[in-house]
Amino acid sequence: MRTFDEMLARPPEGTGPLQCDPAAVRPHYGSYARWLARQSEEAMRARRVEAELIFRRVGITFAVYGAKDEDGAGTERLIPFDLIPRIIPAHEWRTLEQGLVQRVTALNRFLHDVYHEQEILKAGVIPAEQVLGNAQFRKEMMGIYTPHRVYSHIAGIDIVRAPNEQGEGEYYVLEDNLRVPSGVSYMLEDRRMMMRLFPDLFSQYRIAPVMHYPDLLLETLRASAQPGAADPTVVVLTPGMYNSAYFEHAFLAQQMGVELVEGQDLFVKDRFVYMRTTRGPRRVDVIYRRVDDDFLDPAVFRPDSTLGCPGLLDAFAAGNVTISNAVGAGVADDKSIYPYVPRMIEFYLGEKPILKNVPTYVGREPDQLDYILSHLSELVVKQVHGAGGYGMLVGPASSREEIEDFRRAVQAHPAGYIAQPTLSLSTCPTYVDAGIAPRHIDLRPFVLTGSQVQMVPGGLTRVALKEGSLVVNSSQGGGTKDTWILEA
């Protein structure tokens, strides 16, 4: 399978020190490739050890659900950090940024529409049953006002690159994450680490900054407060320290200078939300929640939830608090809705999509189901509600038994699956145990929507550290890289 390498037009074979024809290096990597070729293996290995020690000291870990240590306790893992950055030239980023703004704008328009007039359903652009029967559609949100008509204030859009017919890399949107997208803390910590380990590189390159993301996030959240909140109080709501992304919750609260709270720290009185403090109750205007819908309000959703606060949705409906991202935003990022996003862009904005979707087959369509079942060994098949690299089949990398197990699952519930061609994700040189070798990557930029749509130039580059693997998720052994957007 043909692969596009981000750094090299002709990637070297094997693993070891970077040995390549300078003429094969893509122009935007030129200075970096010359610098890297001068580095000794001992120096790179020492910096890798230093990075791991610092990450452990700071506590940049994530919990692994279902994994136990030898004492039977839950385990935490360090997300591997790669020393070699992913570099994107300014002109490519401009196109990506325009496409991301377009896409997230349309997705927010869609969310407002389906919870109000439902014009896109009446027009038959998307089958009504696909939305109204979706497990992520929350009828409790019908008719509720959200400031600026925004439902997803923080969106993580997964971008991949694959070779086109001419062999050049082309960007595609693989997935939209509009509920509680995670990973931005690793984007920031990766940049901080690179600046610490390789300060000389930042004088050679004009690298666009990302460290102001917490300021933009706080600005977005404050701008999303309900009308009348002159000086909005923002909190970050976490499920608690045992959540896999707890480090990020605490990190973002600290960086924004706001309180990190759990459900037990909040209460609702007269349809207003308050936070318990040592000085007495304090009204809360914006909740940046990192708790899933089902656990957010036990008075409405799961009554056994101890992670949320009874009455939150009632306060939200009354216009007395903003929940970010809004309840019900997940209907727009469900994998069964993903194939319709290009149609949303044309319907709401009257524009052609700037960023393409990956071609997608939908199990609920009989003719497409037949294609899926007869080509399982060639496709990536995903559960529409799956996440984190779970609930999916990578056909070319699966055994016959795994394929047949998935076949039975798809046949039993066709509407629960979509399938896509096995894209050859672009590779980037990566520092692994044996030296430098190409590994597959993706990119998750974070798009903020309040009174305007904005983002920092960059995102979280995830890397599949296992040779040949296309699964970049941290829960599946993936790592991260710093992402450099070059300023023009």
How is this structure best described in words?
- InterPro entries: ATP-dep_Glu-Cys_Ligase-2, CP_ATPgrasp_2, UCP005522.
- This is Circularly permuted type 2 ATP-grasp protein.
- Residues 85-464 form the Circularly permuted ATP-grasp type domain.
- Pfam families: CP_ATPgrasp_2.
- This protein has helices at 30-37, 41-58, 90-114, 119-122, 128-132, 184-197, 201-204, 213-223, 246-256, 312-317, 341-349, 366-374, 400-412; strands spanning 61-68, 74-78, 86-88, 154-163, 169-177, 234-237, 259-261, 266-269, 272-275, 282-283, 286-289, 322-324, 356-357, 361-362, 379-383, 392-394, 417-421, 427-432, 435-444, 446-449, 453-454, 460-463, 479-481, 483-485.
- By secondary structure, the chain is an alpha+beta fold.
- Among the domains are: 227-320, Rossmann fold, CATH 3.40.50; 359-421, Dna Ligase, domain 1.
- It has a 5-stranded mixed beta sheet with strand order 13-5-4-20-21.
- Strand 11 (286-289), helix 10 and strand 12 form a beta-alpha-beta unit.
- The protein is globular and about 70 Å long.
In short:
This protein is α+β, with helices and mostly antiparallel strands.
User: Uncertain runs with pLDDT below 50, 5 residues or more?
Assistant: 65-74
* Percentage of β-strand residues: 15-25%
* Secondary structure tally, helices: 13
> In which range does the helix fraction lie?
25-40%
Mean pLDDT: 91
CATH architecture title of the domain at 227-320:
3-Layer(aba) Sandwich
Q: Could you tell me the number of beta strands?
A: 24
**Rough shape?**
globular
Rg, nearest Å:
23 Å
The CATH class label of the domain at 227-320 is Alpha Beta
Q: Characterize the biggest β-sheet.
A: 5 strands, mixed
CATH names the topology of the domain at 227-320 as Rossmann fold
Structural class: alpha+beta
List the strand order in the largest sheet: 13-5-4-20-21
Separation of termini? 33 Å
Pfam families: CP_ATPgrasp_2
Protein name: Circularly permuted type 2 ATP-grasp protein
Organism: Ramlibacter rhizophilus
Region (Disordered): 1-21
